[in-house]
Amino acid sequence: MVKLFKYISIFLLLVILAVIGLFITAIESYPIVVTRSGEQINQAESVKKLMQQLSASVKNRTNKQNMNISQDQLNSLVGFAQRANGNINGQVHITQHSTSVLASYQLPKNPIGQYLNFDILLLPGPGINVSHVKLGPVNVPGSFALDSLIYLANWYTNSDIASQFVQQVESVSMTERQMQLSVLPLDQFLRELNEVKQGLGGGSDEEMRLRTAYYLKQLSLLDAGKSATAQSLAEYIGPVFSLAVNRSTYETAAKENEAAIMALAIFAGHHRFANLVGDVQPMRGKVALPRTKPMLKSRIDLNQHFIFSAAIKILSEQGLSIAIGEFKELMDRSDDGSGYSFVDLAADIAGVEFAVAATTPSSATSIQNILAGNTDESLFFPSIKGLPEGLSKSEFSRDFTEVDSPEYLKMVGSINNRIAELPIHKAR
């Protein structure tokens, strides 16, 4: 028995050393690809068609379907990822013979190297056909790389959902700058996916769930939520932060604020945010929500942008929250969209900064004291006067050229300055 344990220990040590050695070997001094995210997301409106296809595929889940994905759509999504995390660079190139995916990830400073480079080649044919995956100079056979990824995903989810996902793709064909996926009926796969999602959510933060449930119940009892006329979001923020003050110590203020914001997102934003927290609804089988949707600056859409961004910030990284808002505006430049709106972008950024200020331990208590019992929007939401909105792609290009141009950055800087002058941020 002792010998067996010794052999197993040696084997595991060798596996760990091999993985570390492979990682070190894969690190390089230079990136395999360098891109500008501002150029990549200039075609963001094309992603709207992809989203519509995905939505249609869910509605028609019992039928076999074909999905068209363009090179512009994929590169726009890569650009979005880069804006969410500046360490990422990537590019997709589709021809009739293959699809090449190049990516570089910049590592923290170290004596070995600065970049982890990926080179993935996909081929047309039955199913998903990966020709190779290169990690720096290390060439991994495509079938081995795909099988390993499937195994890890199945292991992490304690299911065979990754295997099912791969099996859903019947075939892949390619033309210049576009690929087409033939996908088998999604009904059973989506059912399995929902079960996996519920299983993964089972380990959520119980303290966070209980706090959020408390604030959500209190929000459901407010008179503002029973009014037939739309109320300002401030009519909900003031009372809920009064409760947070009474429940907080200096050590717990940030956590109370975090739960209060999630409850606001569920109640005044969308009830599906509750899926990310747990069972928080005050009445089983019934969703708590106001009689009329709240507003900011007398606009329902700005409330949505603000509170969604605040919740996403709590659930993710700040860069991702802002990138989502920016990308959504770029998508809206399409002919059937509402146009690029710096007003909406201001609401997105304000929501992120609101969440940052409220959940940072050093400022959490002061934010509570400013907001508690106060129903003044100007404490946490900036002026939108003079901010352009409703810009078509041609109008956006005429006035701002592209994302990250001097003109664009000047406008974003103006928004950031307005937000920095708000009382909740001047007190930090």
Account of the 3D structure:
The chain has 428 residues and is of the alpha+beta class. The chain has two domains: 26-199, no CATH class; 204-426, no CATH class. It has helices spanning 2-26, 37-40, 47-59, 71-84, 142-157, 161-168, 187-200, 206-220, 234-247, 253-269, 300-315, 318-331, 342-359, 361-371, 393-400, 406-420, 423-426; strands at 27-28, 65-70, 88-94, 99-106, 115-123, 125-126, 129-135, 138-141, 169-175, 178-183. The strands form two sheets. Strands 1, 3, 4, 5, 7 and 8 form a six-stranded antiparallel β-sheet that branches. The protein has a four-stranded antiparallel β-sheet with strand order 2-10-9-6. A hairpin with a 2-residue loop joins strand 9 and strand 10. Helix 9 (234-247) runs antiparallel to helix 10 (253-269), helix 10 crosses helix 11 and helix 11 runs antiparallel to helix 12 (318-331). The longest helix has 25 residues, at 2-26. It is globular. 32% of the residues are buried.
Query: What's the overall average pLDDT, rounded?
Result: 88
Fraction of residues in β-strands:
5-15%
Low-confidence stretches are none
Can you count the helices?
A: 17
* Oligomeric state of this protein: single chain
Task: Report the count of strand segments.
Answer: 10
Number of domains: 2
Helix content: 40-55%
How would you describe the shape? Answer: globular
H/E topology pattern: HEHHEHEEEEEEHHEEHHHHHHHHHHH
Q: Which sheet architecture does the biggest sheet show? A: 6 strands, antiparallel
